[in-house]
Amino acid sequence: SPDRSLLFSYLGLLFPFICILNVCFVIYWVCLLQWRYVLIGVGAFAICWNPVKNYFPFHLRTDLIPEEHVIKVLTYNVMSFADKDHTADSPNMIVKYIADSGADIVCMQEYMVSKSNKLLTSEKLIRALSMYPFRSTVFFNSSSSSKWGLAVYSKYPISASRRVSYTSRNNGSSIHTIDINGKTLTLINNHLESFKLTAEDRSRYSGFIKGVGPDTFDELRGVIQQKLGPAFLIRAKQADTIAEEIRRIKSDYTVVCGDFNDTPVSYTHRTVQGTLKDAFAESGRGVGVTYNQNFFWFRIDHILHSSNMKAINCTIDKEKYSDHYPVWCYFALN
Predict the structure, then answer these.
(1) Which of 191, 188, 193 has its CA nearest to residue 243?
(2) Neighbouring C-beta atoms of residue 160, cutoff 10 Å
(3) CA dist., res. 69 & res. 259, Å (int)
């Protein structure tokens, strides 16, 4: 837990880079015929095989999607719909993507609707996404011009919804009960605490990645100490709360998804996942980057599910309409 030590939280962020570095060392030692050191590198991968395969899964895709007892779930940080309206002449591409996705259940984070008819209102969104007759929104905050929070749009009836109780001004989680042909699915949609990095902070990080000098590193280190550390601590408490909610679930199926703002190798992910399965680790392939801005190449958007659901073809679509890629997966309900 970050409460005990922040070191491992930082190492979790660095995990993919450490893996790549280790691969480079193994190749280097093979070229030099230093077999003892090759064994050390290979042994490190063997010891860490579980986090390695969760972070870099490789599964072949299947075209054989069962026709019965299957649902498609989409989670998408919609970035306030890029602050764009949606009209027939000028469609909002994020809204259009969702409408064309064929998903049965859509979980949206950073969901924002305008109070002015000149921009994207909830009424326009409902019309554009009329294929989802059942909807639930949980707003965290509002201004004179808009309101924002989380939303779940579903083709199946939503019988109950509530906000999960934990302290956060602009982030949160919601829990929903959905009727799937007589069975109940409990869905938890999440937008956990972000690092709150400003555009200037991200610019420093980009500069550091591109090889800017030690001054940039000193500035970046200050940002890390001021923002990343506190965010790890806040997310840890939120993860504990979500895990407790999951332990109380009595329904037939469970799905927990959304923007965790943390990687597969983190206290947040491990705590929330518990006995659930990670859909991308079970059926996806590759690194699975879901955030696409400023060289922050991490998988921070996740779909977790109960073991009586089989994940099929979990996919991260490289549609760069938002600063997050959409993540979707088919689930066969056993």
Answers:
(1) 188
(2) 11
(3) 27
The DSSP secondary-structure symbol of 69 reads S
Q: What residue type is 59 in one-letter code?
A: H
The pTM of this model reads 0.91
Q: Which amino acid is at 213?
A: G
HSE-up of residue 234 (Cα within 13 Å, Cβ side)? 20
Compute the distance between CA of residue 108 and CA of residue 105 in angstroms, rounded to an integer: 10
Give residues with Cβ within 8 angstroms of 171, minimum separation 6: 140, 191, 192, 193, 194, 238
In order along its 334 residues, the chain shows pLDDT tens digits of 999 999 999 999 889 989 999 999 999 999 999 999 999 999 999 999 999 999 999 999 999 899 899 999 999 999 999 999 999 999 999 999 999 999 999 999 999 999 999 899 999 999 999 999 999 999 998 898 999 999 999 999 999 999 999 988 789 999 999 999 999 999 999 999 987 665 554 555 555 455 555 555 556 566 666 678 889 999 999 999 999 999 999 999 999 999 999 999 999 999 999 999 999 999 999 889 999 876 678 899 999 999 999 999 999 999 999 999 999 999 999 8
Q: What angle, rounded to 10 degrees, do the helices at 35-47 and 7-31 form?
A: 150
Determine contact, residues 51/264, Cβ cutoff 8 Å.
yes
Kindly report the backbone phi and psi dihedral angles of residue 133, in degrees, each rounded to the nearest multiple of 5, phi listed first: -75, -15
CA distance 125 to 108: 13
Tokens of 106: 């859509």
Query: What are the strands, taking DSSP E only, across the chain?
Result: 70-77, 105-114, 134-142, 146-154, 158-163, 172-180, 183-191, 253-259, 277-278, 301-305, 309-316, 327-333
* Burial degree of 122 (CB within 10 A; 0-12, 13-18, 19+): middle
